[in-house]
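PROTEIN DESIGN WORKSHEET
SECTION A - STRUCTURE
LENGTH: 95
TOKENS:
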């Protein structure tokens, strides 16, 4: 009887140890993935900003008294559409 209890106790400790080890690996992996995603997003934003900054943009004149949720910019490479999450004043959108 004592032998069975000892085996059950050792088995439970091993299971608890393995589960806690798996949870810690999962959390560290999740943080690592989140860190890589944030780094990739920041690189993408920076590259896109510099690409847009260096590209020669031509603005087609429109009235600036309204709010827009998207704009169309024309460059040497062709038209580019920018879609905003919220509507913004048109004069701000073209800055």
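SECTION B - SEQUENCE
RESIDUE ASSIGNMENT:
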């Amino acid at each position: 009887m004592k032998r069975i209890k000892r085996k059950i106790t050792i088995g439970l400790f091993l299971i608890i140890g393995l589960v806690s080890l798996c949870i810690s690996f999962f959390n560290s992996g999740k943080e690592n993935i989140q860190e890589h995603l944030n780094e990739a997003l920041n690189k993408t934003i920076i590259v896109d900003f510099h690409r847009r900054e260096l590209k020669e943009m031509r603005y087609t004149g429109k009235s600036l008294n309204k709010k827009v949720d998207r704009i169309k910019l024309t460059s040497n490479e062709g038209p580019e559409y920018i879609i905003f999450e919220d509507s913004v004043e048109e004069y701000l959108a073209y800055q």
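SECTION C - NOTES
The longest helix spans residues 2-54.
Strands lie at 57-58, 67-75, 78-89.
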